[in-house]
Amino acid sequence: MPSITSSDQVRLEYSESGDPAGRPVVLIAGFMAAATSWMFQTAPLANAGYRVIAFDARGQGKSEKPGHGYRMARRGKDLGDLLEALDLRDAVLVGQSMGASSIWSYLGLFDASRVSGIVSIDQTPRMLNDDDWKQGFYGYTRETLGSRFEHGVPDTGVGTPMMKRGMRLVRLVRAVKIRPGSAKPVPLDRNEIALLNDHALQDWRDVIARLTVPALFVAGAESEFWPAAHAEASAALNPLATSAVVANAGHATNIEQHHEFNRVLLGFVAGL
User: Fold this and answer.
1) Residue pair 238/211 in contact by the 8 Å Cβ criterion
2) Per DSSP, which regions of 203-257 are E strands?
3) CATH no. for residue 81?
4) Residues forming a β-bridge with 242
5) How many domains are contained in the chain?
6) Using an 8 Å Cβ cutoff, are 244 and 264 in contact?
7) pLDDT tens figures, 111-151
8) What is the pLDDT of residues 24-40, one digit of tens each?
9) End-to-end CA distance of the chain, in Å?
């Protein structure tokens, strides 16, 4: 895979396909996921004439795993380093889960002059629930602030159980290499725990409210992590934003129901 070097000298790898002269579509995977998790999107986007770039964040996939920089501000800067190194312009940024938050982090640091549109896939802009925001991570409140993500991503008990997802599970196994039936999740290291907790504390609503380019918020109707209503609530923050809910899909919406998701994605990008 080709790579760039971040401003703090970390090797960040990416894959590229499609038309080199086409509009860039940058795919940013979620927490611990690799660029290969976009296997159901890269070919449809490339076949539609786009320049498709799938990005491995630091510590993920084939990118370097340094001992520093595991916070959302750095993920935003890393994305900016990629856009600048490849001199991408008029780019559509597509982020799944924490990948979407990486986009908000980037736009909180820099302007949108290189960006023409944004797609957020099943990521609430605020994970903490309170009287002002009810669309956060299930069970994450001020009372559980220090403990909810102490050991990783907890099982919320919401959504279709993994082993009952049929072909949805098969696609997840192929795309993100999960191990169905594993007794315990893969333990996280201290850097991953630090990143997860930093992510959980963020509130991106002010960034979304100031967007100057169109944005699409997509939710999985059966998301394990937060109510699907987060997509509509997020879109309500900015008149340039719209939302969609994909039926029979969990958090990995673009994998579990890739045909419907791709229809929504391609329609949005074509309309920019």
Assistant:
1) yes
2) 215-220, 241-246
3) 3.40.50.1820
4) 216
5) 1
6) yes
7) 999 999 999 999 999 999 999 999 999 999 999 988 999 88
8) 999 999 999 999 999 99
9) 29
